[in-house]
């Protein structure tokens, strides 16, 4: 029977509403929920491809101990007894939980309650430490609470949006779509992007400040000094609702304009243009993300931004305010429950004795953590030096995503007892688990998440739990019960949610920002039917849009905000041996460590390989050819990646996506190169600025393969594999030519006695082409050459699914490109409709000179719209070429 369920996207912090439809055959399709106030029906490429990531390929389906399936009881008993023993022998601080902004609020709540209230340690931290900690610290320093003052509507109401260290177009695409739509109706809406590289978001901006890495404190201090003497300064607001302006101003004034120009790398004229725009526009929202947070001076960057909004009173009013964009679907929910090691619960401070007493009374718990626990980087250091005897990792993949990733891997490997709760079996982290607990994934689990604008939405299940998978809260509650703790007899998420809501309102009386007391009494049915709402939602108040701080009322003891004097300076991270700045981040169609998005062919086609973006002049100087392979290294580690030579990258700096890992590439975990260096206030690691050496990789022979089934093991100095429609595509790099390619292929691709073999070698250019067929079906095509292989990848992968009836068709595979009568779509640009660059070029040649016209003809860019900038670039390029 056909069924539609309203749920929420499990990827970014925009928190889009999704309608999942299951048809008679059980097939699932998704569309945007037109009634959800985050997206009003829109979705991005990742959201629209959700149904393609639901297969049980690679799923963890049974509890395992040392890789062997066991009964749940056995696994849970072992976890409870190992944690119990470690605590009995070494005390509660000898155990730790490392959880995730991808846990639902209910999972998170139970994890925090168990660790802080029952085990009695603060040692629960989360991947949000790598993500939101500097924002949390900045908010708490300025506002006395971790409060995001505004809401999404402000982005549409603003006249100026400043994106600081945010690639919104790729990382919060639906917010970008909302802004672009607002701009269509109000072309005066200006956008400024502040980013050391020209991201796609910078392409969309009216002004791009190509700032030096970590130049932001200088930039915003300069802005504060500028505003102080301008008409934009709001003396009334500053006097009535803040303290510390003078000290902050003095700190800001220590730099002259030319100092700021030096520290930011921006010409004075550009600085002044930005400062004047900020001065003369009233309705400003400053959005910031990881270019701000993931820095050794991240908290100061946050406060330097907030200072400018406080000084102009532009906060908490429609169209105005500082806006921290959250990364993960439930980064906010995790902060609400107190999932960070230095928080307690429900936005109460762990250092506050009265708060500890209040939470302990509420939980009726035997104990309460007396002090903050270890923050992520410290936690893995404690694992490495043996202080942590038992570690539970849930919904995060630290072997890939933590800085100093090789050392983190060793630490986990050597830890006496490691539990991993994950949905996938073979992640780089799950591979090291003593006990693997199979978790329910998106579509199977049930609970709530909170998005960037403090809106709480339901994630609902519409699929049965596969095999023995169980939700994360259940893993935790079962272990808690087995450890002898009372207060974990939950039967469903609704019971956990109402307890969390009750704690938020408990002895609150308006003293704490986070209060959803109005939901403390709701029934399971009401929870089931709950529609998205913003917090706060105090008992006895109506639901509605909420903003904070237009009239002060901050959460400090005197209810005034604090200006924070910020004096930190940008530090040079490069050296003679490591002269390049390594910057890292995200691409449009992959999510973090790819455990889900890597399953969708559509999402793997946009950028199918780990790569390093490098400026053409640097590439030339280092003798790095177009599509050559490059080694990046420093004292921490090394990686090998494909060169993407591009003007988007400034000289002296390279950009690498964070996504690739050992499941998808030989040696591309970029976090192996990152120092475990953190912001002193927030403990957030600096993931965007480290020195590296860049050189051509020692590769003498290249290969490219399309294969019908994934090879068990790949062995080459360089390989990278990506899902394709009817199989996989694999890139190779070897340090010397292969002697016997047929034998190598048979061994690598498991074609022992199978596969009719066709081969072609091009003598002078030493190109080799091999095809292996099972009747009319292509099993493997392998192309090799002494230089990067010039095969049409997108054409080649399409051949996997075809019936190659004639010998002629099979021989044509060896050509590596389509025949004269066939179209080569070229590299995918629009992943929603699988439209390639050549098709777009064709449409332009045929007279489509606007993005809309191309959309009409090919559908490209008409769904999520994330590729519209790229399409425009292709049109512009074609027209320019035609004009030259
Ligand atoms: N497609 C996709 N979307 C995602 C995610 C994903 O994995 N894939 N992950 C989600 C998560 S968890 C997060 S946290 C967000 C992150 O969202 P973003 O923060 O927007 O993404 P990043 O690419 O990490 O970094 C943003 C930009 O910061 C710039 N930057 C680097 N150093 C500096 C600096 O010193 N100053 C300034 N001003 N800018 C700098 C980088 O060049 C980069 O373009 O994305 C969320 N959305
Ligand atoms: N170099 C560099 N490193 C970075 C960053 C960067 O910009 N640059 N960004 C940092 C940031 S902001 C973030 S947020 C992190 C993200 O890094 P991670 O959290 O490590 O990345 P994910 O791939 O999202 O990991 C989620 C894991 O949970 C599993 N999973 C999915 N759903 C569920 C579920 O319902 N239950 C359970 N138990 N498991 C589930 C997935 O299979 C996967 O293994 O990376 C950080 N690391
Ligand atoms: S913007 Fe995309 S990834 Fe983010 S919540 Fe919406 S659909 Fe999901
Ligand atoms: Mo994040």
Alpha plus pi helix count: 31
The total beta strand count reads 36
Task: Determine the mean pLDDT.
Answer: 95
Bound molecules: ligand MGD, iron/sulfur cluster, molybdenum atom
Task: Please state the overall shape, judged from the principal axes of the Cα atoms.
Answer: globular
Number of individual domains? 6
| Multimerization state | single chain
Task: Summarize the structure in words.
By secondary structure, the protein is an alpha/beta fold. It folds into 6 domains: 51 residues, Phosphorylase Kinase, domain 1 (2-Layer Sandwich); 273 residues, Rossmann fold; 192 residues, Dimethylsulfoxide Reductase, domain 2 (3-Layer(aba) Sandwich), CATH 3.40.228; 117 residues, Barwin-like endoglucanases, CATH 2.40.40; 113 residues, no CATH class; 56 residues, BFD-like [2Fe-2S]-binding domain (Arc Repressor Mutant, subunit A, Orthogonal Bundle). It is built from 31 helices and 36 strands. The protein has a 7-stranded mixed beta sheet with strand order 5-4-18-17-16-6-7, with helices on both faces. It has a 6-stranded mixed beta sheet with strand order 24-26-25-28-23-27. A 6-stranded antiparallel beta sheet has the order 30-31-29-34-33-32, with helices on both faces. It is globular. The site of molybdenum atom has 3 residues, from loops.
């Amino acid at each position: 029977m056909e069924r539609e369920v309203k749920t929420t996207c499990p990827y970014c912090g925009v928190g889009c509403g999704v309608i999942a439809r299951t048809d008679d055959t059980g097939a699932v399709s998704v569309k945007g929920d037109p009634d959800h106030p985050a997206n009003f029906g829109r979705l991005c490429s990742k959201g629209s491809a959700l149904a393609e990531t639901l297969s049980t390929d690679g799923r963890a389906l049974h509890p395992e101990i040392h890789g062997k399936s066991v009964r749940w009881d056995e696994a849970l008993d072992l976890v409870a007894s190992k944690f119990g023993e470690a605590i009995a022998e070494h005390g509660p601080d000898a155990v730790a939980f490392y959880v995730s902004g991808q846990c639902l609020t209910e999972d998170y709540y139970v994890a925090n309650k168990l660790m802080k209230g029952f085990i009695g340690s603060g040692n629960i931290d989360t991947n949000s430490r790598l993500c939101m900690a500097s924002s949390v610290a900045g908010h708490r320093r300025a506002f006395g609470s971790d409060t995001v003052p505004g809401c999404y509507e402000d982005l549409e109401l603003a006249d100026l949006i400043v994106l600081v260290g945010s690639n919104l177009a790729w990382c919060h695409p639906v917010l970008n779509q909302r802004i672009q739509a607002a701009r269509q109706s109000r072309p005066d809406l200006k956008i400024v992007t502040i980013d050391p590289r020209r991201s796609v978001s910078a392409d969309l901006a009216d002004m791009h400040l190509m700032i030096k890495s970590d130049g932001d404190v200088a930039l915003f201090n300069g802005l504060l000094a500028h505003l102080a003497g301008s008409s934009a300064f709001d003396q009334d607001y500053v006097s009535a609702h803040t303290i510390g302006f003078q000290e902050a101003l003095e700190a800001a004034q220590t730099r002259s304009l030319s100092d700021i120009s030096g520290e930011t790398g921006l010409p004075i004229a550009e600085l002044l243009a930005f400062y004047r725009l900020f001065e003369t526009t009233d309705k400003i929202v400053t959005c910031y993300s990881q270019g701000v947070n993931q820095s050794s001076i991240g908290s100061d960057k946050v406060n330097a931004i907030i200072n400018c909004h406080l000084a102009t009173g532009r906060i908490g009013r429609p169209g105005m305010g500082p806006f921290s964009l959250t990364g993960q679907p439930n980064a906010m929910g995790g902060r609400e429950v107190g999932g960070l090691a230095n928080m307690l619960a429900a936005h109460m401070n762990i250092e506050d004795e009265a708060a500890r007493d209040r939470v302990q009374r509420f939980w009726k718990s035997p104990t309460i953590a007396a002090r903050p626990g270890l923050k992520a980087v410290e936690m893995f250091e404690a694992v490495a030096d043996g202080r942590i005897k038992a570690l539970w990792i849930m919904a995060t993949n630290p072997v890939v995503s933590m800085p100093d990733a090789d050392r983190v891997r060793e630490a986990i490997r050597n830890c006496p007892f490691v539990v991993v709760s994950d949905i996938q079996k073979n992640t780089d982290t799950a591979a090291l688990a003593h006990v693997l607990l199979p978790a329910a994934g998106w579509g199977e689990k049930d609970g709530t998440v909170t998005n960037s604008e403090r809106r709480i939405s339901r994630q609902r299940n519409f699929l049965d739990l596969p095999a023995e998978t169980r939700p994360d809260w259940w893993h935790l509650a079962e272990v808690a019960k087995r450890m002898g703790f009372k207060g974990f007899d939950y039967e469903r998420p609704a019971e956990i949610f109402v307890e969390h809501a009750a704690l938020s309102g408990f002895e609150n009386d308006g003293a704490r920002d986070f209060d959803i007391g109005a939901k403390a009494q709701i029934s399971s049915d009401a929870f089931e039917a709950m529609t998205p709402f913003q917090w706060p939602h105090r008992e006895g108040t109506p639901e509605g849009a909420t903003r904070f701080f237009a009239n002060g009322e901050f959460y400090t003891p005197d209810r005034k905000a604090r200006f924070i004097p910020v004096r930190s300076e940008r530090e040079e991270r490069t050296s003679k041996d490591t002269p390049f700045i390594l910057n890292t981040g995200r691409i449009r169609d992959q999510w973090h460590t790819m455990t889900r998005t890597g399953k969708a062919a559509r999402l793997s086609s946009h950028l199918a390989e780990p790569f390093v973006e490098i400026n053409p002049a640097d590439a030339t100087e280092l003798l790095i050819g177009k599509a050559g392979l490059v080694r990046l290294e420093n004292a921490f580690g090394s990686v090998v990646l494909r060169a993407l030579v591009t003007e988007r990258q400034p000289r002296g700096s390279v950009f690498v996506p964070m996504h690739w890992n050992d499941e998808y590439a030989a040696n591309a975990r970029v976090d192996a190169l990152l120092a475990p260096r953190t912001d002193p206030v927030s403990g957030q690691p600096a993931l965007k600025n480290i020195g590296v050496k860049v050189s051509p990789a020692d590769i003498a022979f290249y290969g490219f393969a399309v294969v019908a089934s994934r090879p068990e093991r790949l062995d080459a100095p360089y390989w990278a594999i990506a899902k394709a429609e009817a199989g996989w595509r694999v890139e190779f790099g070897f340090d010397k030519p292969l002697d016997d390619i047929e034998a190598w292929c048979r061994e690598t691709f498991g074609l022992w006695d199978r596969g009719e073999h066709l081969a072609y070698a091009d003598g002078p250019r030493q190109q080799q082409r091999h095809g292996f067929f099972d009747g009319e079906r292509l099993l493997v095509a392998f192309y090799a050459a002494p230089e990067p292989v010039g095969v049409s990848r997108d054409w080649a992968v399409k051949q996997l699914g075809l019936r190659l009836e004639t010998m002629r068709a099979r021989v044509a595979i060896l050509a590596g490109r389509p025949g004269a009568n066939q179209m080569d779509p070229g590299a995918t640009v629009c992943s929603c409709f699988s439209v390639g660059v050549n098709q777009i070029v064709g449409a332009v040649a045929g007279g489509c000179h606007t993005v809309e016209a191309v959309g009409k003809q090919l559908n490209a860019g008409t769904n999520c719209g994330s590729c519209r900038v790229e399409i425009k670039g292709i049109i512009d390029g074609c027209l320019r070429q035609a004009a030259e």
